[in-house]
């Protein structure tokens, strides 16, 4: 039996999620919430977050300026918890997203083939 999930109507009056650009945001009290990534934010600070991201410059290992949607190449082999091999140098990562709230200096959010979604540091990649 096929299972059908109803996501509900897209509310065109609310802004998309600033973290994942999801269109299904909803209001919960004074906050806006994204059901896709569970990001919560205040509508008053949404413009300030975008302004902060716009003024921030992220550079790769050789000094090239990175932006959302770029394709990058990993410059050194990276160990990954739970994986015996890790990510090898030369692996291409497409469609990166720059983030400000990464842990321990991780400022790139991406999906790596064979590993899934993860965060990388800009110092271990170069623009392809």
TrEMBL record:
Q: Which InterPro entries match?
A: YjdM, YjdM_C, YjdM_N
The major lineage groups are: Bacteria, Bacillati, Actinomycetota, Actinomycetes, Kitasatosporales
Q: Which residues form the Protein YjdM C-terminal domain?
A: 58-128
Q: Which family does it belong to?
A: Belongs to the YjdM family.
- Locate the transmembrane regions by residue number: none
**A Pfam family assignment:** YjdM
Q: What is the name listed in the Swiss-Prot or TrEMBL entry for this protein?
A: Alkylphosphonate utilization protein
Q: Which organism is it from?
A: Streptomyces polyasparticus
Q: Which domain of life is it from?
A: Bacteria
Ranges for domain Protein YjdM N-terminal:
13-42
């Amino acid at each position: 039996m096929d299972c059908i999930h109803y996501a509900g109507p897209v509310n065109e009056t609310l802004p998309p999620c600033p973290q994942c650009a999801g269109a299904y945001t909803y209001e919960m009290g004074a906050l806006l919430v994204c059901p896709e990534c569970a990001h919560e934010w205040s509508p008053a600070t949404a413009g300030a977050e975008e302004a902060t991201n716009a003024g921030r410059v992220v550079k790769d290992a050789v000094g090239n300026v990175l932006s959302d949607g770029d394709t990058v190449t990993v410059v050194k082999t990276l160990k990954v918890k739970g994986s015996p091999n890790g990510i090898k140098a030369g692996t291409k990562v497409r469609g990166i997203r720059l983030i400000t709230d990464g842990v321990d200096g991780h400022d790139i959010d991406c999906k790596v083939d064979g590993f899934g979604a993860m965060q990388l540091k800009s110092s271990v990649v170069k623009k392809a």
